[in-house]
């Protein structure tokens, strides 16, 4: 039986649905965690650094969904490319799951939990910075060239800071890191992704 070739523009909406499901689970996890805090504010002591990372990861998820529209430009989809994109979304979901675990019964506060799981959290966060470079390469040389110089500077710095954060429990370092990350995220989004091209 003869099958007509499926165009890349027909494939992309299908892939976007799968990505959306995974990203939606992550957003749900974060919002449910915040809702739990609102519902039971005295159950566990809050920690500003933890909440700032919640805001940062939520922003990353929303931004991921926005910038992945650039995948529309891909002409030849392979299972490898599809698997990579879904894996990237899964990694973002895992960051959400680490910020709000199923149970906090072994911890007195979100501060205790955050520092106990910091190696996992910052290891996954470092991986997302590296995957972001690959994701940009997938979208084509012209797309990558738009960010290349900044990627060469920012990626090693952010990965290095994640490694330091995974090893350090210094509250001042973690406060400065998350504050700087949020400021940089907002700058990155509004400088380079305010409008989709």
From TrEMBL:
<keyword id="KW-0812">Transmembrane</keyword>
<feature type="transmembrane region" description="Helical">
    <location>
        <begin position="120"/>
        <end position="138"/>
    </location>
</feature>
<feature type="transmembrane region" description="Helical">
    <location>
        <begin position="12"/>
        <end position="32"/>
    </location>
</feature>
<protein>
    <submittedName>
        <fullName>Uncharacterized protein</fullName>
    </submittedName>
</protein>
<feature type="transmembrane region" description="Helical">
    <location>
        <begin position="79"/>
        <end position="100"/>
    </location>
</feature>
<keyword id="KW-1133">Transmembrane helix</keyword>
<keyword id="KW-0472">Membrane</keyword>
<feature type="transmembrane region" description="Helical">
    <location>
        <begin position="44"/>
        <end position="67"/>
    </location>
</feature>
């Amino acid at each position: 039986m003869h099958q007509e070739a499926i165009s890349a523009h027909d494939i992309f909406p299908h892939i976007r649905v799968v990505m959306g499901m995974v990203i939606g689970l992550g957003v749900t996890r974060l919002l449910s965690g915040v809702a739990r805090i609102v519902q039971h504010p005295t159950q566990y002591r809050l920690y500003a650094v933890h909440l700032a990372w919640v805001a940062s990861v939520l922003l990353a998820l929303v931004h991921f969904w926005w910038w992945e529209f650039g995948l529309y430009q891909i002409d030849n989809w392979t299972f490898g490319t599809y698997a990579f994109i879904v894996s990237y979304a899964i990694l973002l979901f895992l960051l959400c799951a680490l910020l709000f675990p199923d149970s906090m019964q072994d911890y007195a506060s979100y501060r205790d939990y955050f520092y106990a799981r910091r190696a996992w959290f910052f290891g996954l966060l470092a991986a997302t910075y590296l995957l972001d470079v690959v994701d940009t390469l997938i979208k084509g040389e012209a797309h990558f060239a738009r960010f290349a110089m900044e990627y060469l500077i920012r990626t090693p710095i952010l990965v290095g800071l994640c490694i330091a954060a995974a090893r350090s429990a210094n509250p001042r370092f973690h406060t400065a890191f998350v504050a700087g990350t949020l400021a940089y995220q907002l700058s990155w989004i509004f400088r380079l992704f305010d409008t989709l091209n």
